[in-house]
Fold this sequence. Notes:
The chain has 1038 residues and is α+β, with helices and mostly antiparallel strands. The strands form 10 sheets. Strands 15-14-11-16-17-19-18-20-21 form a 9-stranded mixed beta sheet. A 6-stranded mixed beta sheet has the order 1-4-5-6-7-8. The protein has a 6-stranded mixed beta sheet with strand order 25-24-23-29-26-35.
Amino acid sequence: MExxxxxxxxxxxxxxxxxxxxxxxxxETQVRQEFINPxxxxxxxxVANRAGYAEPYKDVIHEDAIKVGGATKAxxxxxxxxxxxxxxxxxxKPSVDVKGDIAPAYQxxxxxxxxxxxxxxxTDFEEFAxxxxxxxxxxxxxxxxxxxxxxxxxxxxDRFSEIYDVFARESVLRGSFDKFAESATGKRGTQEVDxxxxxxxxxxxxxxxxxxxxxxxxLSVRDLNFAVQVTIDRIIFLxxxxxxxxxxxxxxxxxxxGGRVYPRLVDILHQADDRYNSxxxxxxxxxxxxxxxxxxxxxxxxxxRLYYPESPYEFSVLGADILGNVYEQFLGKVIRLTAxxxxxxxxxxxxxxxxxxxxxxTYICDYxxxxxxxxxxxxxxxxxxxxxxxxxxxCGSGSFLLAAYQYLLDWHRDWYVAHxxxxxxxxxxxxxxxxxPRQRANDQKPxxxxxxxxxxxxxxxxxxxxxxxxxxxxxxxxxxxIDSQAVEVxxxxxxxKVLEGENKDTLESQLSLWRERAxxxxxxxxxxxxxLIGPDFYQQQTLALDEEEMNRINAFDWERExxxxxxxxxxxxxxxxxxxxxxxxxxxxxxxxxxxYKQRYRSASKGNxxxxxxxxxRGLQLLNAKGRLGFILPHKFFNAKYGEALRKIVxxxxxxxxVVHFGDQxxxxxxxxxxxxxxxxxxxxPKCRFVKAHDLSAWRxxxxxxxxxxxxxxxxxxxxNFAIGRGASLFERLSEMPVKLGDVAKLFVxxxxxxxxxxxxxxVSERGDIVVCHSNATGADHEFESAHLKRLLKxxxxxxxxxxxxxxxxxxFPYETRGTKSVLLGIKEYQARxxxxxxxxxxxxxxLSSRNKGRLPTDEWHGYVYRKNHTxxxxxxxxxxxxxxxxxxxxxxxxxxxFVGSGGGGGGGYGITISEDTAxxxxxxxxxxxxxxxxxxxxxxxxxxxxxxxxxNRQYIQQLPIRPIDFSxxxxxxxxxxxxxxxxxxxxxxxxxxxxxTPHDKELLQRQINATDQQIDRLVYELYELTEEExxxxxVRQ
Length: 1038
């Protein structure tokens, strides 16, 4: 039957018996079975799971209806694609006023908002309401708040196409649902649940910290941080268990009545320890918190915001990824104590320098787990898998361990079902009873039409027992983090995952059967320590460490902490997202550690490296002989000088097995970080699978992306520029050309004044030998000697392809070239020759003298801190900005222009001077560098940035292949001279274009420029001997 025809029949049946269906006697279960289920079956959803899929793969999940406090604690339907939630549907009986009743709308929006779903549906079939769930729900909201679509059953036929195009399964797969949701954005009051919950628990932290510090004056700062964190963790754990029906509902809310709130809370925590046996409630290890004093008001304020209707949070659907994201941000701050023992919450220094904390998206965690853990379990039995040891050495809030745990849970369940569930009665049970299948003699089977009554089950609805989930967790998963609070959060996240899908009935039936408590103690699996620093650190210290340094460094002895794993050779998998911290930043608060890394790790031996390269090296060391590493990390080390040591480690061992390169695609929300996924095999592999995922959406949806194999022999310590696909052979041929730009020219970086606001000026006017410029340092205009100030370029702002444009900046350059040296003008000479400029410098003396921590010589305060390449700026040179959309080279053949090495407002650039032993002229080189061949080559090797920009730093441009000229060959000389002629014409055309006044003149000149460009490209194709196929490859990349 066609979809619309099926809906026609449903509408007709409802219309004929409308009064019956709207009566109080017609209930929700009936409307679901007779109308809502068939309606969505008509839209292509397998509502009854006729395909017999296991729980993770079903289209539609019918949530267990947990009645708590008089309210249902889970939505009736969850519609999914590939196991990912897309929208909830809450069903009501037709006698309910969907349009006007506030309660069901608020409840649905709480579900959708808490699960971070953009849209969800409220329907009784007679009415159909779609709500935007991105707006934070409030109990005072009307039923229409957030409602973006309202239909009655009489609208279904006329607007069937609209319904089908958004909510049909095939439409959701095509992305139509996401586009519809996106078009509904921009509503006032939008605040995502993770941001709101983060603000909520940050408020708890501040209130608890201040009160604990006030009422417990002997608390140390470490104990205060622990007490606050563990109290919040315990409250969240219990509250989530309440909404899942595991804990008695509203037990925390009951503490609002009466006094002695904290002692009564401690009683509840002791009861939880009896049930769960978890380290979270272990008061033998934690003798501190039970004896603390906390004011009743603080806890009552906290508990009052945890329950319906005041609370917008529906903890039963609050996902592990949302909680992880919240906690990742939460862990970026720490509590400090003032001299007066007052608590203050501050951002950690490493977080402040990094610009925040960024949570790894679930799809990245899942892919890394699939390519590491997934490879390791292939072809194994549960007994063999039980021996696998999986580590995250910087586990943070536990997102990677959660992903690995979920993968292992799914794998074990599928294996047991596939190999005879009746043989594995202690490992799995049928959903709906909570006891092993061997004890279920009278279970109902599905009816012939595939529908099920409220508590029926299909043969595929199996879940792992809690006992088995605990066994897998303790056997397989390990984590380390330097932050003790992060360790506790990881434990909390994993414990909540153990209880996921359970309720009071399922837990009690299992626990009574095996006489066990519900949760494992993870103290031997998840540990606090510094993954990079071992006990040998202390042997190298000549000065004693104070207690604060000892706690911050937190050396970790792997052999002692994980003896069985290390004796067996190491871990089978190392996964995660290591910290990204530049070593210059670390030196500010961790100088001893930085020095240790330099001595201990090859990857830290040179350059201003980032700490993630050390984590890669350490991760490799921690693997056993057949182990596999999977990290998400910046791809900058592929080409950066500091990455050379790590590239050599990886290439020497032939470790690199796979790379997923995201180009300029942004993986982390709210951050601009250029990343890749890298997978290493400890034992070595013959080739690397290289994937260019430069369209993140296509890669996520398993659509075609460019990929290919790179032989291990082609991976070396030199820059990693992996060539794959149609252009690979051309790229390799160009890369193998013997002469590079770095061989025929000197590349030098621009000036670094360390006081740009003083030395760099904006020209306002010029008269005679006086120039008036505006200073950012003083905020005023000043007069300067024109002959003394240099014309200044700022990267991509002024350096364009074949031209220099919009130059209105001037530079105070307090040096002169004398002989072969650049000499700082002495104070007396400066005053005599350039009195106006000197007067300006004197007015900024305090600012200039404070540079370099005030260590400048007293007679050199007016100079630059960094003196480099000063004598080269007044030489004939080519110029290139440090960032552009492609090949972008210009000429300054008179040496009139200076330029900066870095900075905002255009950035920096590089100069290029041709070596004395090179015979060709600069204009020949300029034509080659600006050609389509060079452009295509740069796009193959350079770091991409957002907006289509490329890094044109020295490490990239020095690799450009240069076709030398044989001046004994008339043919070569003719090509050289023709190139020079074309480039001279190009430079003249660009000057005329800049001066053109009318659109007609500009268009004519642009046409001539385009034609000349094509002539230069054809000449370069000849010089480089490109085939027609290779020319096609080059031109496709433009």
